[in-house]
Amino acid sequence: MEIVRATRDDVPQIMRLVESARSIMRANGNMTQWADGYPTEDVIINDITCGNSYLCIEDGKAVATFAMIAGPDPTYTRIYDGYWLRETNDYYVVHRIASTPKAHGVFHAIMTFCLQHTRHLRIDTHRDNTIMQHLLLQHDFTYCGIIRLANNDDRLAYERV
């Protein structure tokens, strides 16, 4: 799997991947994550403009997308019912992972790519996203506590150092 930086021309593909991921979530009992049209096209365009958006390419086709963003992330400033493993701002956050249902090994490929750029990653996920929680633990992330998004929704927070 090849990972490339996304461009504005990739927005329609990314939005299809987001919708695919939303369908996977719903089929697995995660009924409320990425509700109300999140992530919007504007969020994706901002990721691209900032150079943080990536596509996973397999056999010439985009099969997944994600954002990798240098910290600090404002929503990670406060953590509840736990603590970060390392109190520092020199981390990267992985956000908005989305893939097709037929793509395999996507999370592993994303983690391999990210770990080539940093050894310190943070990520959060919805309480109902059991697939992501399992993948995080499989890839040596530690559950650290709960963070609150800007809209006041809680997310489970993980870190790998």
* General form: globular
Query: Strand order within the widest sheet?
Result: 1-2-3-4-5-7-6
Helix-strand category: alpha+beta
- Count the DSSP helices: 4
Oligomer: single chain
Distance linking N and C termini: 24 Å
Report on the biggest sheet.
7 strands, mixed
Roughly what fraction of the amino acids lie in strands? 25-35%
Order of helices and strands: EHHEEEHEHEE
Q: Which key phrases capture this entry?
A:
161 residues; alpha+beta; 7-stranded mixed sheet; 4 helices; 7 strands; 28% helix; 29% strand
How would you characterize the overall build of this protein?
The chain has 161 residues and is of the alpha+beta class. 28% of the residues lie in helices and 29% in strands. The chain is built from four helices and seven strands. Strands 1-2-3-4-5-7-6 form a seven-stranded mixed sheet. It is globular.
Compact overview of the structure:
With 161 residues, this protein is α+β, with helices and mostly antiparallel strands. The protein has helices spanning 11-27, 41-49, 106-115, 130-138; strands at 2-5, 53-58, 61-70, 92-99, 121-125, 142-148, 154-160.
SSE blueprint:
Elements lengths: L1 E4 L5 H17 L13 H9 L3 E6 L2 E10 L21 E8 L6 H10 L5 E5 L4 H9 L3 E7 L5 E7 L1
Parallel strand pairs: 4-5
Antiparallel strand pairs: 1-2, 2-3, 3-4, 5-7, 6-7
